[in-house]
Amino acid sequence: MPEAKVLPIDVAVGILMKPNGDVLLGQRPDGKPYAGYWEFPGGKVEADEAIIDALKREFVEELGVEVISAEPWCGVEHVYPHAHVRLHFYISRDWRGEPQSLENQAFAWQGCVGVEPLLPATIPLIEWLDKLRYPG
User: Fold this and answer.
1) Which family does it belong to (predicted)?
2) pLDDT tens, 61-115?
């Protein structure tokens, strides 16, 4: 019998971007895979949930921020030892509230990204994002 193919887990990921190009990164809390690694905030898309709705829900739950609008940016599949994920990245320049650490995670606004270590799926995105943030 052929092996059942494991479908990737859909994850909504948000990049809050300030007018100066700074973006928000969060640090994965203790008890989660890759604890201590930095990533863009987000979370799993629930069954029958639109990706943008998952993004808005996760930002309220994790950071106490209401995403007013966000545009789809890119999608990346990444296979980690613990999970196969399909990451749906959105960029938001329009939100309400200041980020708060509601799940005891650290976070930092970054221009030139200096936090380490970065989650493996995040690394190539920083270069693409820099081209968007700092054209020319």
Assistant:
1) Belongs to the Nudix hydrolase family.
2) 999 999 999 999 999 999 988 889 999 999 999 999 999 988 788 999 999 888 8
CATH of the domain at 64: 3.90.79.10
**Residues 1 and 16 sit within 8 Å (Cβ to Cβ):** no
Contact 89, 75 (CB under 8 A): yes
User: What range defines the domain where residue 36 resides?
Assistant: 14-133
Identify each DSSP E strand in 17-136 by its residue range. Answer: 23-27, 38-39, 42-44, 66-79, 84-96, 107-110
Residue 19 lies in a domain: yes
Nearest CA-CA partner of 101 in 51, 56, 57, 65: 65
Please check whether residue 9 lies inside any domain of the structure.
Answer: no
Please count the structural domains in the chain: 1
**Six-digit token pair at 39?**
């990533």
